[in-house]
Amino acid sequence: MLELPVILNIPKKLYPVITDFNYYNYCLLDGGRGSAKSQSIARFLTYLGDIKKLRICCGRETQNSIEESVYQIFVNLIKKYKLNYEIKSNKIVHRINGTTIIFKGFKEQGSVNIKGLENIDILWIDEAQAITKTTLDIIIPTIRKPNSKIFFTMNRYLRNDAVYSFCAGSSDCLHIKINYLENEFCPQKLIDEANKCKARNYKDYKHIWLGEPLDQASDYLFSVSDLEYSKSIRFSGDTSFENKILSFDLAACGGDSCVAKLISQKSFTGWEERTVAQWSEPDTDITKGKIISLCSLYMPQMQIIDSDGLGYPIWVSVKKILEDCIGFRGAGKSRLQNTLNQRADGYLTLNEYLQSKWLKITCENTIRQLEYIKKIYKPNGLVAIEDKKTIRETQGESPDFADTLMMAIYGINFFSHLFAKNNEESQTKVETDFDPF
Fold this sequence. Notes:
The chain has helices at about 15-20, 35-50, 70-80, 135-140, 160-165, 190-200, 200-210, 225-230, 285-300, 310-320, 340-355, 365-370, 390-395, 400-415, 415-435; strands at about 25-30, 55-60, 85, 90-95, 100-105, 105-110, 110, 120-125, 150-155, 175-180, 245-250, 260-265, 270-280, 300-305, 325-330, 360, 375, 385. It is an alpha/beta fold. The protein has two domains: about 10-185, Rossmann fold; about 225-425, 2-Layer Sandwich (Nucleotidyltransferase, domain 5), CATH 3.30.420. Helix content is about 35%, strand content about 20%. The chain contains 15 helices and 18 strands. A hairpin with a 3-residue loop joins strand 3 and strand 4.
């Protein structure tokens, strides 16, 4: 039986945080309310700082004031156990060995500020579900002092949270999922609150108290359950449909990829997606050649190309060869009444297809990117979609796969007359070429 000082009264499930501290560089505790994640880490760090001089930083993505940090948890522990720390307005310092605990928001005026992190022994990031990939990519290599550690505590928001994706499955990370039912110190008052939430709204209960990712946050466009279901759809019945569409999302800047997707009709309303090509060569002649080559290979009844920015001259050039090639302008005039532009038209239509179970998605990159697409309500009441630049800054990538699928659905929904035209032309050609003799 492990005997610990009273300040280390933490759930038994979290004992490995203490016993295996030296075996990992990272530690992730994820779970819901009442699981003692933050309380346990604060207790452990306060204990460590009491026996050894350490420099500890407690950080969040954004922090407008000290009250938004875990500062008060440390203050309460120090007062409760009469520990030898001096509590200052913006930091906590051990009176004997000089251990210092500071509190920091990483994002300041749109940029990641790593000042003061170079000599940190332990970094604790609370509310880690809010950390963006961009912030994480900057912070991780900054904590490089020998034997330094990084702790994460979070209640997962989305399945592809940047921190969770970084930690899950890593051999260098101690990962423990815990909820209030596994916390023997959970107050009865919290248990009662959990039971009320469970009776009122089980979906909320699963996220708030069991720590399950949200199915759909209010500002995210797509439901995780709809995206998951789309992978398992099986179309049955008439298999005579031959309509196909090729869509092309073209790289707009460094780090982006050009992506081509083939969408095939599988039933009267059903369609199936698959990625057929991805390339990153900046040469416009190469891109033009790939588009024409893929169209010749798959013989789609419709092709739609990103014609914004650098894509415009490519579309103009390709259109001379592929007469009915559609140019998609994300910032162009919307076709729906409640949307800001064509990009919003396409994504709202894509969401309708998913909700109606009309679309099978086979590409995991597409699923992953669709999970973080956000809708934005403008002051005039119109719905917009978060722009690519912002997505690239927060997610560390451009949603090339998601945009390519969105463009295809846009073409299917608003240019379906081209299918009828091309099918009619194909049928006429067959009848004209037919020679029984």
